[in-house]
Amino acid sequence: MSITAKERAEFEAVIGLECHVQLQTTTKAFTSASAAFGGAPNSHVDPYTLALPGTLPVLSRAAVECALKIGLATSCTIRRVSRFARKHYFYPDLPKGYQISQFDEPLCEGGTVEFPMPCKPGEKPELRSVRLTRIHMEEDAGKNTHVVGTPYSLVDYNRAGVPLVEIVSEPDIRSSAEAVAYLRAIRQIVRYLGISDGNMDEGSLRADANVSVRPVGQAEYGTKAELKNMNSFKNIEAAIEYEIVRQIEQIKRGERVVQESRLWNVEKGISIAMRSKEEAHDYRYFPEPDLPPLSVDDAWIEDVQRALPELPVAKRRRYVEVLGLSEYDAAVLTADQAIATYFEAAHHDGAPPKLVANWLASELLGRLNKDEKTIEQSPISASALAGLTKLVDDKTISGKMAKGVFDTMWATGKSAKQIVDEEGLVQVTDSTAIEAACKAAVDANPKQADAYRAGKTTMLGFFVGQVMKATQGKANPELVNEILKSLLGG
Q1: How far apart are CA 40 and CA 190, in angstroms?
Q2: Which of 31, 95, 35 is nearest to 58 (CA)?
Q3: DSSP bridge pairs for 25
Q4: pTM for this predicted structure
Q5: Are the CB atoms for 163 and 60 separated by under 8 Å?
Q6: CA-CA distances (angstroms) from residue 123 to 127, 331, 369, 382, 428?
Q7: Distance (Å, rounded) from C-alpha 364 to C-alpha 369?
Q8: How far apart are CA 123 and CA 256, in angstroms?
Q9: Pairing state of beta strands 153-156 and 112-116?
Q10: ∠ at Cα 180 (121, 272), nearest 5°?
Q11: Residue 85 is inside which H or E element, if any?
């Protein structure tokens, strides 16, 4: 598949996402069976999970509370009375032959998700906002495993009945990169709220994408295809990009885009037609007769609202407006709640916020990524990083010396102060001693001094190097530069 950049520019992608988030509750949505991930196949089941005759659903209050949290966090309107419905389809992973979901009266309506687009260090991230159509509650299905080379499949019902929220966006997304940034924001929010771990590899976060294209400037939407089976951010971006190009190619050939569901084939890097896209009437929705309407009063909503943590959007704004961080650094530090927690622990330990942000975003996260470690696995604690940055801030050591200290901290677990004391790394700030070293360097290199005075200002670096060598790297670089310029007449 290939189209030219000019052909691509003639069309605009229109993307909406349906994001399923497994909720971290102890029990399943409508029964007391365990909702824990893992376990031997079919070990987290009970008579209701298996749809044995005579069993009835009982709604989990914890699941409702999780749904309220994500609804309030995304500024949804909370329905005081919502209802569950039966969504019928027949597949081995669905023991009852229907899924309990919410149809025309969902718990949460409207809302928005705000997020920064990725950018390079030093750049200002572009902020985006995607409107939500609704967030509704439902139960998960089981898991089918198709055994290659055999005529049968295996079914594990451990996941069947685990509570979900489905977050349905408006078709506001215009690129595969923006779709991924939006999904990362969803994962970020649910992790901050503590309602899901958002792990795509475990199925805690799953997304289907509705993708269409239209000529630039056209108001009417094109025919959409729904993409399924995308189990990572990388695959989601690749699948959406493939589908955009596929549809543009079809239109260019004079063919009609068909509304259908398509599976993403990870190995081949292509999407494959699965079935024509279902409409609501295909599922034969009707009200769930075994569950009363879900009633949520103002007091419950207010209790949940008060308990919400500071969310990523508010935290980024505070880091910029109150702590004076750049928008790029604020976006990096709030991308993961564990990183934000680490940063705040270091900052509250008395370290300057800008300095901590610089060391955390560049040195620490860079080293963690290289060693494939998470922030929780860092051998340098928040308190230890705070200690290092305080030594830099009060000019006990220079930034260059601090990098060496950081390496030793990483390798040994020692504190910055301990390393500085043991290795005698205190920075020389005595202007008299530094001036003597600078004068000695200038006197010993008259040709280079004349070259500098003749306009070759790059020679200043040569003299700085000579002084740092003479002082074993301990001279304060700012004082060295200032004194050398005075001695050389610069």
Answers
A1: 27
A2: 31
A3: none
A4: 0.84
A5: yes
A6: 12, 11, 21, 26, 35
A7: 9
A8: 41
A9: unpaired
A10: 140
A11: strand 85-88
